[in-house]
Input
Amino acid sequence: MNQKNVIIIMIDGGRLDRALRSQVFNSLKSKSVFFTQSITYGPHTIAAMHATFSGSYGTRTGTNSYWSTFKFKKDKFKTLTEYLKENNYYTHADVINELVVPKQGFDNFIVHDELNDNLALRHKELLHETATKLRSGQNFFLYLHYSKIHTGIMNQVLKVYNNFSKEYYDNREQNDKRYDLLFNGAEIYLETVLAQINDLQLDKNSIILVMSDHGVSVGEKFGERAYGAFCYDYTLRTFTYFMADDFTPKQVTQQVRTIDFMPTILEYLGINLDSKYEKPDGISLMPLINGRTMPEPIAYSETGNPLDKKEPPKEPNTKSIRTSKWKFIYNQHNDTKELYDLENDPNEEKNLIGTGLDIEKTLWQELDRLQKPS
Output
């Protein structure tokens, strides 16, 4: 077994386009394997992070919506935390609330005060305490949830506008500025936490994952003022940086899924999958990390569009299937379909459904297969 600590730094609501033009995030490229096309299962934290921790889609685990944390089939799906706990890791989560990630396997599951806590300082101290306490030779897993973008969007957008507030969509410049200010806070946080990791020399004996659970709208599509209503790339396509001292830095443009992260970490650590549990949907990305090729997996995503209701539905009603070149969306609530050529239309503005493209049938059949629970 590869004796390394595991640190996941999750930037809740972090947009890929902002990371791509950020000096702080770009500085990670020289010391990480940077995946430019990581697709989340759910454009909201609960579904997204249960899929990440289990390596499996919510169609199988039961956690497929805002309301389904307690429907997670913990007897059938083993989480990353449980694997690490079984291998004598000390496991600690610092999160925004009790619902966002599976609790099983954590020695400590602490909820921070998203409104008042200084997360940079809090997580810096937590890293120091954990490194000091565990110098006895025990490895640790820290899950650090940076929630301030979410908190800002909640207070400044979700509580002020609804999904059909014309005023919001008419003020793209203001929306961009608001988001950029929040993202800048994430940059300051990340710099502080990574500096502490380096000061403690944890970069030498850890695998570190810097990721986003989903993006946030700045008004691109009428009907989604933040996230969780649609399956467009501004919320589904996220950033992923894997760092370890034995990784050769590189940029990978091939599509991967956030469900692939758990099998990747386990393979890197030399931990075998437990045959008593269901096999994950995700696959290890170690071939790509090691500079080899592997087939590109199709990515499935789904969410619950609240439409004109105040709360999202109990079950997903908007679903998408994606390759790095094509996206197919099925809006189950009104039985409409969308097809986008992502290479030539990355903003998903020209719907090609019904234009006779063979890929439409292929993706529709794959979506139909994947959205059925096992």
